[in-house]
Amino acid sequence: MKPFTTPYAFLTERLRGRGARSAWIEYLITATCGIGNMLFGYDQGVMGSLLTGPSFEATFPSISNGNSTLQGFAVAVYELGCAAGALTVIISGDKFGRRLTVMVGELIIIIGAILQASSFDLAQLIVGRIVAGFGNGMAAAILPTWNGECSRSKNRGRAVMWQLNINLFGIALAYWVDYGLAASSSTSNNGWAWRLPLGLQSAFSAVTIVMALFLPESPRVLMRNGKVDEARDVVDMLSLEEDPATRAAEVCTVVSLIENALQEDSQSDSKWQAIFTQGRPRFFQRLVLSAFVMCMYQLTGVNLITYYVPVIFQNTLKFSRHLSLLMSGFVGLEFWIASFIPIPLIDRLGRRPLLLFGAVGQCVSMAVLAATVAYPGNKACGYVSVVCVFIFNTVCAIGTNGLAFLLPVELTPLQTRGTSVAISTGFFWLCNFFVVMISPVLISRIQYGTYILWACTNLSFIPVIYFFIPETRKASLEDIDVLFETNPKWLIGPQSKKKMAKITQDASLLTDAVLHGRKESAPTVDMVENAPSK
Question: Contact 305/510 with Cβ under 8 angstroms?
């Protein structure tokens, strides 16, 4: 694992071949990806609370003088940096690997955080947000892929859900950091009230870099770059088999399967030619579905709530600044707690039921929120509005939050996964920019109509999810390939659960036969996660 052989070996050599203890490598990869993603959540929560602080307003008066467009741009420009960073992963994700791309992205975040925390004018703040966004875009585009490729099929959903759970902890942490420093921001000359929260971003990135030093690269990336021995070593350490002979058989099987998949990749058109054509693997359809899921998450209105809930409480519902920050803290805390709910459900109930639940619940809560915000002077309506915000976050945490990052990894094929996920993530950040940019403008101009708009977008997602999004529960990535190859149509959703169950059953029987020496060849699979789970 050059150039980080020593720290990498220190951890992995103590865990390999120890059965259940070997699973800790997988858990640590998930934890590292979660901490790396925490900055995404932290930045979502931190800026909204800072915008109404006296010390922040004194330093950046141009944002605070009723200029909702400039306010939206200063917050949303971060997402433009994220979009640019995500697109660089098209090259770096495969060429330099998931692990190194993550570490470079986190290093760039540290630079951006320092620029923001040391700002004395709006231009430097904006540059710092662009730089930090660029690094976060790189990291966020590759972290779910690294996590998913090193997780087993029966654990993949839970692994990515845990990663997004830590992301939401970042939102909650940001709200409470802002609330804790609110008392010291009562005077305009205390810059620490906003500098410290912005500078704290670098701490998460530093922890992610250190943890990544000790963890392995995706074996698929290693083999793609000709590092077969290192890939074999990673497959060995991720195996849960304690018996050396059984583990060796599993390693040989999985490595040969990856080789077969890469051979098919080399015989196909270039990924840029393939990705915009259908072909037997349905490349373009899977890119569209991947991008849709990510854009759908942004267009639910979740980041209207996440970024601007303190502004909504203070300016729309006329709460005091202290109460607005306190309520925002509980909103973030509840969002994080609710994200524990889908972890045991994602691989039991499946992806489609949770997505449909999310779309319906978000539509209803936004509609009720619109009706109550229309009467800002009514105390009862104010209470109902607060309840709707909590309900929306709960439904979103259960239904769409984690799946927006899990499904793009699952839906895209081996040949184009890195490129497809990077493009989808780029669209994700552009939609994020759009939502964050227009939200303060909409709130100031059409007021309760803002929430009607997001209720309508959520309503429109329901038929799209039902007819077009397939069920991928407990399926290996290769099983998902088979589903698309054997069902060459766009309306794949309604029958996907039954068809996927048959595909996974056949694949499991054949893989089990291979591992026990009853077959000489195996089906083509694309990742370590295709090996049987314990």
Answer: no
Beta strands in 79-210 (DSSP E): none
Q: Which residue range forms the structural domain that includes residue 284?
A: 12-220+279-468
Q: Note the pLDDT of residue 104.
A: 95
Residue 63 has pLDDT above 60, yes or no: yes
Task: Indicate the SS3 state at residue 301.
Answer: coil
pTM here?
A: 0.79
Q: Which two tokens stand for residue 72?
A: 């939206």
Q: Are 60 and 122 in contact (CB under 8 A)?
A: yes
Q: Is residue 51 part of a domain?
A: yes
- The residue assigned the tokens 């490598």 is 25
Output the 3-class SS for 240-291: CCCCHHHHHHHHHHHHHHHHHHHHHHHHCCCHHHHHCCCCCCCHHHHHHHHH
Q: Please classify residue 16 by burial: count the beta carbons closer than 10 Å to its beta carbon, then call 0-12 exposed, 13-18 middle and 19+ buried.
A: middle
Domain presence at residue 401: yes
Identify whether the C-beta of residue 144 lies closer than 8 Å to the C-beta of residue 163: yes
pLDDT per position as a tens digit, 224-262: 788 888 888 888 887 777 677 777 777 787 777 677 766
Yes or no: say if 395 and 468 are a contact pair by the CB < 8 Å rule: no
Between the alpha carbon of residue 336 and those of residues 86, 163, 205, the distances in Å are 25, 12, 20
Rounded Cα distance, 355 and 227, in Å = 39
Would residue 480 count as lying in a domain? no
- What's 198's domain CATH number? 1.20.1250.20
Structural domain count of the chain: 1
Q: What angle do CA 378, 384, 390 make, to 5 degrees?
A: 140
Quick check: 82 pLDDT over 60?
Answer: yes
429 Cβ contact partners less than 8 Å away, ≥ 6 residues apart: 79, 80, 82, 83, 86, 133, 137
Is the predicted pLDDT of residue 522 greater than 60, yes or no? no
Spatial CA neighbour of 285 closest among 460, 153, 495, 470: 470
Residue 237 maps to a domain: no
- State the Cα–Cα distance between residues 437 and 441, nearest whole angstrom: 8
Burial (CB count <10 Å: 0-12, 13-18, 19+), residue 362: buried
